[in-house]
Write a structure and sequence with these properties.
Layout lengths: L1 H12 L5 E3 L5 H8 L4 E3 L15 H12 L4 E6 L8 H6 L8 E6 L9 H8 L3 E3 L5 H7 L5 E4 L8 H5 L3 H8 L3 E5 L2 H9 L3 E4 L8
Parallel strand pairs: 1-2, 3-4, 3-6, 4-5, 6-7, 7-8
Length: 208
Amino acid sequence: PLRYVVLAERLIARRVPLTVVADPVRGKPQSAYLGVEDYIAVRNTPSLKPPQQGPSRLADAVARIRAAAPDASVFCVAGSICQGAQISRLLASFALWPANAHLVLVGNVDKDIPDFNEMVLRSGPRVTYLGAMPYGEVERGLPVCDVGVALYNTDWPWSNEIYCAPCKVGDYVKAGLAILVSQNPTLVSLLAEYPIGVAIDPLDPGSI
């Protein structure tokens, strides 16, 4: 059971001299969760290493969108297609998006969205799902998009909020994209420091 894993985690954390947590903003609640006082926080930063040359189905799909609609603004979700990433709410809000907005999704679909394909079809031709693809293809395709979307769950506690740093946000920033993100403390603090996007309420279709 999960409670035994949590207990073991806390016991181990209290026996080491220093704990590393995934983000400066979450350092205090994370250390409180573990029951430790001494910790060091790290933050993901975009890699400076350029992507390797090669094909990209993401880049090809965006090229087709722009050929048909030269004024298109392409929003990209690259990562797990799941309820935790607010994908259902994102698609449900799409009817309110501007007419030149196009949404491209890349990643594996989790079982918690069994009607995902039907939702994509209902959203119309401006929503494209490309399936999963190797990281290199995603990395090479992101620079031709306009906005990277990362609507992390804002509820607490949640495993992604406890353990993880927003890796996909780093990928978007590396690609030079504006970012559309959730109003959670980590991402709001990032935007306060670097004005590179907008934080919205992922539970409110109008906000999205």
